[in-house]
Design a protein that fits this description.
Shape: globular
Strand content: under 5%
Number of helices: 15
Low-confidence stretches: none
Length: 368
């Protein structure tokens, strides 16, 4: 694959995008460390593992940015096949955590293939939609691209991982909108998905049905299915304007808040840093996403444009689903908050997506 020499790559970096990414990772790592500050027996293994994952992710980002994205385009279907193979294999030899068989375990570490599949789907959908751009959002294009997304979605549902399956479908719909789909056709598509989802309700696990029912009526079971959301909202509210301080959040330090380093890391940040800290975090996410918007407007390559759009959609949905679940506006899905939640797979694959995007921006836009 053709690569930009690292000296040229250094000059061509989108430093605003890169800087926002680094700051978001820094906030996440600092929060992971703060969770252990005031406990009797601090366990900072996760902190060190996240640092190692960050180091690996930076190397992956640099390589992805250096490789010509047009070469990545030529291998899109091969990458798609690799993604499907890993999702199939994890169902057979994967490790089950919290009721989901979605991780490979080796040498004391784990890898979640669905995180890689999210990035690979952006690549293959960008390839297919750019190849058939002259057809627009025809039913043929919708049907074939729906088949592309259906295969990994089914495999993810078999784990079962409802949150990631929802994200994959949302990614597909978001990318279709970039083809300027007529509103009536989009409404018909949404109706069809709603019918399929209604039928699929009966195939969900009991805990998944409870999560959705809790979303519809959060106060229906405050001590069981609604407990997590209730505690997250309490943590966010207790942060007030300036927060309780790093390591001083009662909800997180006293373990009232479950899975505080993954699903509810936003609630921890809100409790420790308050409303001001949340504003800073949202500003960083806004600065991060704005670079994709600028890149989309300036890109002169259709595949690159769709790659940027898909990556932006992916990150946007992850941010909205995670924060929305924390504040009770959306159902809890288990989707990590990009760059902040603990998890090496998610962090490395997010940095991979940023690297691919930076490669597009450096080669197809008039600014650096």
């Amino acid at each position: 694959m053709a690569m930009i020499p690292f000296r040229g790559l250094f000059r061509r970096f989108d430093w605003v995008l890169f800087g926002a990414t680094l700051l978001l990772v820094a906030v996440g790592i600092a929060t992971l460390f703060s969770i252990t500050l005031n406990v009797e027996q601090p366990r900072i293994e996760k902190f060190y593992r996240q640092l190692i994952s960050f180091g690996i992710g930076l190397v992956v980002l640099a390589i992805a940015a250096a490789v010509d994205f047009r070469k990545v385009r030529s291998y899109a279907w091969v990458l798609y096949g690799i993604g499907l193979a890993t999702l199939s294999a994890v169902l057979i030899v994967g490790t089950t955590l919290r009721g989901t068989t979605g991780w490979f375990s080796f040498l004391g570490s784990t890898f979640q293939p669905v995180e890689l599949m999210k990035v690979l789907l952006v690549v293959v959908l960008a390839r297919y939609l750019s190849d058939h751009a002259d057809e627009g959002a025809s039913w043929r294009v919708i049907g074939f691209s729906g088949g592309i997304i259906a295969l990994p979605t089914v495999l993810v549902m078999l784990q079962p991982d409802l949150g990631s399956a929802m994200l994959l479908v949302g990614l597909w719909l978001g990318m279709l909108l970039f083809l300027k789909m007529p509103l009536r056709r989009f409404a018909m598509l949404i109706l069809g998905i709603a019918v399929v989802a209604s039928i699929g309700w009966f195939g969900l696990q009991g805990y998944q049905q409870k999560r959705i029912m809790t979303f519809l009526n959060p106060g229906s079971d405050p001590l069981r299915s609604g407990y997590n959301v209730r505690q997250a909202v309490v943590a966010i509210g207790s942060g007030k304007l300036f927060g309780r301080g790093l390591g001083l959040g009662t909800q997180s330090q006293l373990n009232f808040l479950p899975t505080q380093d993954t699903d509810f890391i936003f609630a921890v940040i809100a409790e420790e840093l308050g409303f001001v800290g949340v504003l800073v975090l949202l500003f960083l996410f806004s600065a991060f996403l704005s670079r994709f918007i600028r890149g989309i407007r300036s890109s002169r390559d259709l595949f690159g444009n769709l790659l940027l759009a898909g990556t932006m959609i992916l990150f946007t949905f992850e941010i909205l689903l995670n924060i929305g679940g924390n504040i009770g506006l959306l159902p809890l899905t288990g989707i990590p908050l990009p760059f902040l939640s603990y998890g090496g797979s998610a962090l490395i694959c997010s940095l991979l997506a940023v690297g691919l995007s930076m490669g597009v921006i450096s080669r197809t836009t008039s600014y650096h």
